[in-house]
Specification:
With 577 residues, the protein is an alpha+beta fold. It is 53% helix and 12% strand. A hairpin with a 2-residue loop joins strand 11 and strand 12. The structure holds zinc ion. The site of zinc ion (ZN) has 4 residues, from helix 19.
């Protein structure tokens, strides 16, 4: 077996134990030659880039878990660590050897490089359009390490055209790489299943998952872990994805090859990631309460009665959890706060998809970025009403609202869907709908006495402050643009106001009306499949106006995101060693 994977793991485990990395200044090297001016300024530059991510310890309450289940979490953390090594290799063939070089450089510059490399899982700054920040690093390869070295996209496409449909599906599947065959075997490519390509790590990962399955007393967790272990070795993930949908357990693990964003050629190849989390019982109970109110919300949506759905299905599965550990594709650059899986369309058709929301990650981001932003954009009196509970409850409501309002529609007697009719603008409009109708729904539930009345005081101000956080990430992404639409609409409506010195406020006399009007406009375009109106709205309002740009400039020193530290995971790992 190739010894490389395990040397990467060894280095990574030294780093996890805090032997080599972290923002703490290094002691001066013994036989010191003064670093050059250029090296000092490069060190400062990299430290400033890393400082945009504030280190935060991820806190989760494991005290209610029986000792045996805590051991399960420890095993899952060990299994999850393997996805770090795998993801490094998947992102770029040179990543592991670059890591080896970086850990040997004990100079302040070397440490700054290593720290920022670990945040980005590679030598490109993901916040800065993947600008390389280590000398000798190439541009970030769009093909990652999923396709043969030296091959071009055109070459792969030409080869794909020579295949039969089943062959093509296997070549473009989530869980295979394409490699060059041994020399002299013709000018084609070879399809290599992940179970072979990553054999060493996956064998170890499967072993750890089986051990965890053996320890847990929770049947659905046992079933998922055992079937996921099989999947890693057989390369058939179907049964384990189904078992993941059926998980009903105090421990919520997600581990395996999932998202395809790292493959910028075809978005076809899945990168390894892991989230080990525990269920948040209080939020789960709140969610059940929201689930019971769905039809009531739908029946009162501020749209024409004929556009409402008289018989909603149940609430799509949502889990609220607290993250204990994240790794691989699940931990680089800006941190994931929620995810929808699986990606396998067969399962989505049969069972739907499950949304996992990580409350403690949201809370960390709230404290690191949203609170400081609120101190810039809101008045001192309003800042006091910015609350994490309001922020998180709205985030949950946003997810719930994706399932309400018009979906299956009829245009000129033709049965169709909102998604089909709104084409490329659908994502932006649907995100705006979920946000603004989420505010509508929260107000409705407050008025009905389902949610606490204090929420009405905090949620609009919290939403206003959070709008600036979303827009700061840019308008290229559907949600950022959706937030710009809402902010501009509500400012134009007079529901939000801006003072000449750039302080924003909620107008209590107009906010409910403004939220209802925007909900009505968006949902009506959706119900009518009105592409032109939706597109015009996005073009007019989905922009950063000069006065907003000025505010964004005042936010430049607010951290962008968090750098998670996993103290609990570290303690669990230390305890089993
Ligand atoms: Zn959404």
């Amino acid at each position: 077996m190739d010894s490389r994977p395990f040397s990467t793991l060894l280095v990574l485990s030294m780093l996890w134990l805090g032997i080599a990395c972290g923002p703490a200044p290094a002691p001066a090297p013994k036989k010191s030659t003064a670093p050059s001016e250029a090296s000092v300024s490069e060190t400062t530059r990299l430290q400033a880039m890393a400082a945009r991510f504030t280190p935060v310890d991820m806190v989760a309450d494991l005290s209610t878990l029986p000792a045996q289940e805590r051991q399960v979490v420890a095993k899952l953390v060990e299994a999850a660590r393997l996805t770090d090594a795998l993801f490094l290799r998947q992102a770029w063939a040179g990543n592991e050897s670059m890591l080896m070089q970086l850990v040997q450089d004990e100079s302040p510059l070397g440490k700054a490089r290593l720290h920022y490399f670990l945040i980005n899982k590679g030598p490109w700054s993901r916040l800065d359009h993947n600008e390389p920040f280590i000398p000798g690093a190439p541009e970030k390869p769009a093909a990652a390490n999923f396709y043969p070295a030296g091959a071009t996209k055109e070459e792969v496409e030409a080869w794909l055209r020579t295949l039969t449909e089943p062959e093509r599906q296997s070549a473009m599947g989530f869980f295979t790489t394409l490699r060059r065959p041994p020399a002299g075997k013709g000018n084609t490519f070879q399809v290599v299943p992940y179970s072979l390509e990553y054999q060493g790590e996956l064998a170890r990962m499967a072993e750890l998952l089986r051990e965890a399955a053996g320890l847990t007393a929770q049947p659905t967790l046992k079933a998922f872990l055992a079937s996921r272990a099989d999947a890693l070795l057989t390369n058939d993930y179907y049964a384990s994805d189904v078992a993941w949908m059926e998980l009903d357990s105090s421990i919520e693990p997600t581990i395996g090859p999932y998202e395809v964003y790292e493959d910028e050629w075809f978005n076809a190849k899945a990168a390894f990631e892991a989230f080990v989390a525990v269920r948040d019982d209080a939020e789960t109970a709140k969610l059940a309460k929201l689930g019971a109110s769905l039809q009531g919300i739908e029946n009162n949506l501020p749209i024409e009665a004929r556009y409402r759905n008289p018989k909603l299905g149940g609430l799509a599965p949502i889990r609220v959890v607290n993250e204990v550990f994240a790794a691989g594709d699940g931990n680089h650059g800006v941190q994931t706060t929620a995810y929808n899986l699986p990606n396998d369309e067969r399962i989505v058709k049969e069972k739907g998809a499950k949304r996992v929301m990580m409350r403690n990650v949201q809370q960390a981001k709230f404290e690191v970025a949203l609170l400081p932003i609120s101190k810039v954009v809101l008045s001192p009196a309003d800042q006091r009403d910015v609350s994490f509970d309001a922020f998180f409850t709205h985030t949950v409501m946003h997810e719930v609202m994706h399932g309400l309002g018009p979906q299956q529609i009829s245009v000129g007697g033709r049965a169709t869907t909102v998604r089909q009719e709104l084409k490329e603008i659908y994502g932006t409009i649907e995100e705006a709908k979920a946000d603004v109708s989420g505010l509508f729904a929260l107000q409705f539930l407050v008025d009905k006495g389902v949610l606490d009345v204090s929420l009405a005081k905090t949620m609009y101000k919290t939403f206003l402050a959070s709008a600036f956080r979303s827009i700061r990430f840019g308008l290229n992404e559907a949600h950022g643009r959706a937030v710009a639409i809402q902010l501009n609409y509500l400012l134009d409506y007079g529901a939000f106001t801006m003072s000449p010195d750039g302080v924003f406020a909620v107008n209590p006399a107009k906010i409910k009306e403004g939220v209802n009007a925007l909900t009505r406009d968006i949902m009506t375009y959706q119900a009518q499949g009105n592409y032109e109106r939706a597109k015009a709205m996005a073009a007019r309002l989905g922009v950063v106006r000069p006065e907003i740009q000025k505010v964004l400039e005042r936010l430049k020193d607010v951290p962008v995101d968090i750098e998670p530290r996993f103290k609990i995971a570290g303690e669990l790992s230390a305890a089993v060693k």
